[in-house]
Amino acid sequence: MSLSKFRVAVFLHGCFWHRHVAHHSPLPKSNRDYWAKKFRRNHVRDRRKIQDLRRLGWHPVIVWECQLRKGPDRVLARVVRAIGHGGVTASAGTNRPKSSG
Fold first, then answer.
1. What is the DSSP letter of 13?
2. Distance CA 100, CA 59 (A)
3. 36-72, pLDDT tens digit by residue?
């Protein structure tokens, strides 16, 4: 989700597809080589997109599927904080947020 007025980009990552380390999910048993490459490409692409956005002065927020299920209010609070952060610093070009991990 893009909140361009505030320079906030919210990514909702599926825990399986983006390999959330909190779950320690094993690779699927069939086509292991394919899946390993697929997940590696996902990770590289995710990282590159986040870095690109930060260079442009945006505040990316990574939301994991499990976080949204367990605590939607906490997720909403993170997005609201990002909106406040982005709205304050984006015009100055100094919006360099910490990793949302």
1. E
2. 10
3. 999 999 999 999 999 999 999 999 999 999 999 999 9
How would you classify the pairing of strands 2-3 and 59-64? unpaired
Residue written as token pair 């906490």: 74
For residue 69, which phi and psi values (nearest 5 degrees)? -65, -45
**Average pLDDT of the residues in 77-84:** 91
What average pLDDT does the chain have? 83
Where residue 76 sits, what CATH number does that domain have? 3.40.960.10
Q: Which residues contact 40 (CB under 8 A, 6 or more apart)?
A: none
> Looking at the whole model, is its pTM more than 0.90?
no
Burial class (CB in 10 A: 0-12, 13-18, 19+), 48: exposed
> Based on the structure, what is the number of domains in the chain?
1
Residues 70 and 76: beta-carbon distance below 8 Å? no
Give the domain range for residue 27: 2-92
